[in-house]
Amino acid sequence: MKKTVFLGALTVAGLAAGASAAATLDDVKARGKLNCGVTTGLVGFAAPDANGVWEGFDVSVCRAVAAAVLGDGNAVEFVPTTGKTRFTALASGEIDMLARNTTWTFSRDTDLKFDFVGVNYYDGQGFLVPKSLGVSSAKELDGATVCIQTGTTTELNLADFFRANNISYEPVPIETNAEGQQQYLAGACDAYTTDASGLASTRAAFEAPGDHVILPEIISKEPLGPLVRHGDNDWGDIVRWTFYALVAAEEMGITSANIGELSAAAGGNPEVNRILGTEGDLGTMIGLDNEWAKRAIAAGGNYGEIFEKNIGEKTPIGLARGLNAQWTQGGIMYAPPFR
Fold first, then answer.
1. pLDDT at residue 22, as a whole number
2. Residue 63 and residue 295 in contact, taking contact as beta carbons nearer than 8 Å
3. How far apart, in whole angstroms, are the C-alpha atoms of residue 245 and residue 242?
4. pLDDT value at position 264?
5. Are strands 227-229 and 212-214 parallel, antiparallel or unpaired?
6. CA distances from 170 to 135, 155, 173, 256, 275 (A)
7. Pick from 205, 86, 219: which is nearest to 150 by CA?
8. Exposed e or buried b for every residue in 257-283, given b needs 16+ CB within 10 A?
9. Span 209-253, pLDDT tens digits
10. Are residues 40 and 80 in contact, defined by beta-carbon separation less than 8 angstroms?
């Protein structure tokens, strides 16, 4: 009897999970657009341009998913979220996925019931200070006021760093990066702390970026990536493998410029063929057609193209690839096999 009841419970749970997993994909298709949570504005990662069109590194992931599922990378409703509102927006169903600078942590994965689908940027927390402050190390910030976004991992990291170095600080809480930039430039805090990539983006927006320096200490690991609701397994697979298609495309030499030619040629590399849908049946396995990855890559380019266009060394943000280089180029970025 107990075994029968237990197996029955598993069956009900499995059916419920399956219904939940299918729901997001069905909702997105019925709606005709993807609701994607992004930051309230972080140049290079996610911010509207002068015409109100959202652009950036994280925005490109949203557009790739929309292209894969709906056939149109512009079929996206971008929903700005803060550190405090982002998880509520995802859990409530207001957004279908969250693609902003969010750190993959144990509690967010397990306690908050979210699934991180991958790491699209390996980062770490740093400090931005005016050159006029005359410090060259974060360990010299004893007694400093520090602007910090609430509802983020940076709060705990900051407390840990100052405690470990037996120095003190006064937090200046902020809600958004825009507020942090304003407070910092107004002199309300001596330093601004967040992910180093975010600091580079913030500094690039200053009238005199050269008057500010990012200190050398990186005090944490911040694996940033897109996430979905826990239990949306089928939807999670779509978002996960869409992102990995962008990464694999760079490794395999598939670009926005040559993707049409490679698709038409159906050449000798079997993995390229499988990614582009000219061989195999990978799309069917995730409820899409076999050109889903081709559309995702064509929407904004491969991972390297997206990186260089939005945040790379030739942009005002000027980020080197570092850990985010392909595994074949000294980094740790690579996709699982497409087979």
1. 55
2. no
3. 5
4. 87
5. unpaired
6. 17, 12, 10, 48, 51
7. 86
8. eebeebbeeeeeeebbbbbbbbebebb
9. 999 999 999 999 999 999 999 999 999 999 999 999 999 999 999
10. yes
